[in-house]
Amino acid sequence: MLKENWRLISRIEQLSDCCIIVLCFFLAYYGRSSFVFWNDVLGLQLSGGDKLAPINTYLFVLGISLVGYVVVLNQLGGYSSMRLTSPWRLLWISVLASIVVFMALASVIFLLKLELSRSFIGLFCMLVGLSLTVQRYVVLRLLRYWRKKGRNFRNVIIVGVGEQALRLALELSKRPELGLFVRAFGILGPDNGRSADFRERLATNGYSYQCKFVRGGVAVERALKEYAIDEMLFTDIVPVMEEVEELVLACSEQGVRTTLAADLFSFGLVRSGLSYFGSMPLIHFQTPPGDRWELSLKRIIDVCVSGLLLVLASPLLLLIAVSVKITSPGPILFRQRRLGLNGRSFNLLKFRSMYRDAESSLESLREKNEMDGPTFKLSDDPRVTTFGKFLRKYSLDELPQLWNVFVGEMSLVGPRPPIPGEVHMYRRRERRRLSMRPGMTCLWQVSGRNKIANFDDWVKLDLSYIDNWSLTLDFLLLLRTVPTVLRGTGK
């Protein structure tokens, strides 16, 4: 019944969308005089202010848009159930659909070399995107209002009495607008007092609904009929996988939808996600920051900023290169093998600040190491040249790493890339430093690294950055790096 209701709502949505597209088409066409008026008054000097061609010239735009919007919205999930949808997702779907249709219309106009107003096309798609968002938001609010009144709801059974079941039950109780009514909790495997403990934890957390418990796979299957169940939600399934498989089969034979909690394990910071490889569903487990879209934006910023700085700083780079060559014999650049994202090997570039073949004398200085753990640090390193001390004081020796950033081996902000020999001595949890692209600066650089002599403290700062990463944090760290470099406290 509920699926039939949603199919009806979906058809009404499609019909409503078509009406909105037609209405926006005429509004955009006949409201063009307003566009021309404000273009002249505000002096915007936007193109496309000429009089539009007859409306029949633009009818093919309406035809393409009707088909395009319905197809794109269907692919984006615009006609699927909105039960768990947020208003922001509605806006994203409508805006993305408008962008795709606009690009399709622009491509057709360009290929056919048609003399049509681009501003009309843009105004039309903008009106459609905004109107679809408003229409869907109103529908979403109405549906949730009806569900709060006890209409269009789904009866569900939560199978499991563990931590996942508790979180799910409490969340559903806080969001009655979702229309999911928990009729019972299923217990698979031995009870051993789990139901009593679960009932007490529900009450402690303010769960006010009456709790019914059904024990064993046979009893849960019987509850499908007795409680008119629309969906079965499986949680904490790892210890009872065989019984879960039998119940999923029983539900499928009766046409009852089943959902498995993708968060199979309790790993703290680890988060799970679902994707498809062809028709095969895959569950992913990953730690922050994961595969967030902001990482792509971070990479774009890295390319743009590093490329710009390489051009602007080229006179300074040339001056430093000449000075390095004059002050001590040896190559201008020092190349060192480092490990980057997930252990990828690359050559880190620096202006040479040490005497030639300084690496060969490293072992003789190991006993003077000022850093606890698998890394080497010596504030008064005898291998550093006089000019090299100046470069290190103001972190000028790091400037060639802008090229490492530009080509994607590093980032502007991120944990410093370690030496392979150091990584071999890492404990397992310390390798998570490699789960993010290494950077030129990070929390360690701006948190008084001269005073940090414990490798564990260094790792904590890096992991804190990874766990709390955001573009805002990167921006703040870059701002804090500037005074650190100017004060000469970078080394």
Question: What is the strand and helix layout of this fold?
Answer:
Blueprint: H1 2-30, H2 32-42, H3 59-75, H4 87-112, H5 118-148, E1 154-159, H6 163-174, E2 180-187, H7 194-204, E3 213-215, H8 217-226, E4 231-234, H9 241-254, E5 257-260, E6 271-277, E7 280-286, H10 294-312, H11 314-327, E8 333-339, E9 345-351, H12 386-393, H13 401-406, E10 411-413, H14 420-423, E11 439-441, H15 443-446, H16 455-467, H17 471-486
Parallel strand pairs: 1-2, 1-4, 2-3, 4-5, 10-11
Antiparallel strand pairs: 6-7, 8-9
Helix pairs in contact: 1-3, 1-5, 3-4, 4-5, 8-9
Describe this structure in words.
- The structure is a single chain.
- With 491 residues, the protein is an alpha/beta fold.
- It is built from 17 helices and 11 strands.
- The protein has helices at 2-30, 32-42, 59-75, 87-112, 118-148, 163-174, 194-204, 217-226, 241-254, 294-312, 314-327, 386-393, 401-406, 420-423, 443-446, 455-467, 471-486; strands at 154-159, 180-187, 213-215, 231-234, 257-260, 271-277, 280-286, 333-339, 345-351, 411-413, 439-441.
- The strands form 4 sheets. A 5-stranded parallel beta sheet has the order 3-2-1-4-5, sandwiched between helices. A two-stranded antiparallel sheet has the order 6-7.
- The radius of gyration is 31 Å and the shape is flat.
- The chain starts with a helix and ends in a 5-residue tail after the last helix.
- Residues 1-5 have low confidence and may be disordered.
